[in-house]
Each structure stands twice: as C-alpha cells, then as structure tokens.
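Lab notes, practical 5.
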Amino acid sequence: MEKKHYLTQEGLEKLKGELEYLKNTKRREIAQKLKKAISFGDLSENAAYSEAKDAQAFLEGRILELKKIIGSAEIVQNHKRGKVELGSQVLLRCGQEELSFQIVGDAESDPLKGRISHKSPLGQALMEKKEGSIVRIKNPDGAVEYKIIKIS
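Output from the prediction step:
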C-alpha cells in the first residue's frame, strides 16, 4: 500500500511546477553538459563527465520522488472546526514571543517559512488541540511550553 502525501493545493501546484521544470528544462541542461563532457574524450578520467552523470542521477531521483508524491497526494482542506488540523494556521505564544505556523504534510514542510509538518514534534502536539490549549515539547534543554492563541 502506497503512503499518502498530504498537501495543500498550493503545495501540490508548487511540486507540479518543480517536476515540469526538472523534466523540461533541467534534463535538457544536463544532457548538454553530458554531450560537452563526452566531446572531451577519455571518459575514465573526465571529471566533467563524472560530475554531469552524478547530476543526472540526482535529477532522475528527484523526478521519481516528485512523481511518487504527486501520484499519492491527498489535498487537505482546513475545515475550521476550532481544532488544529492539516492546513490550519496556528498562532502560538512561547514566553513573550508569538509564533505563527501552518500545519502541513511532510512533503511541504519548511520551518523557516512557517510551515511545519504534522509529524514534527510540535505538529504532533498541536494536532486536534483547541484555542487556549497548552502543549509542552521536550527538547535537549528541557521542555518548551506553547499556548495556542488562534487557529484559522
């Protein structure tokens, strides 16, 4: 049974765009690099050829990964039921600091952009909680406490 990948509509479109770019543009660029490297002759000691082959292998791996994610994608809808769920935007207070995160599937996770996975420690702790709830996350320095201020 194939694993489902939970994505927002925006996340799915972004992955589809990346896939198209890799298939149509990046593949062509790497093919040109390979062609040029082959023209240098003696492939056994040709660093440019070796580098281009590595880039091609990485590219094809990413293309396969994206196809798999897109093929098993399930679009999440935030139902705004007053509880944290996939797709929810959550405003938290930690001490005097306020933080805002969107809860997304792991394929879209980007903590630096405020998008955390529902499988991350904080994401797991927040799931199904209501406004006003307090969650505690253990880390190497002890525990961190977050209060849910708003869910949208």
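Observations recorded by the TA: The helical segments are 9-39, 47-71, 121-126. DSSP finds three helices and seven strands in the chain.
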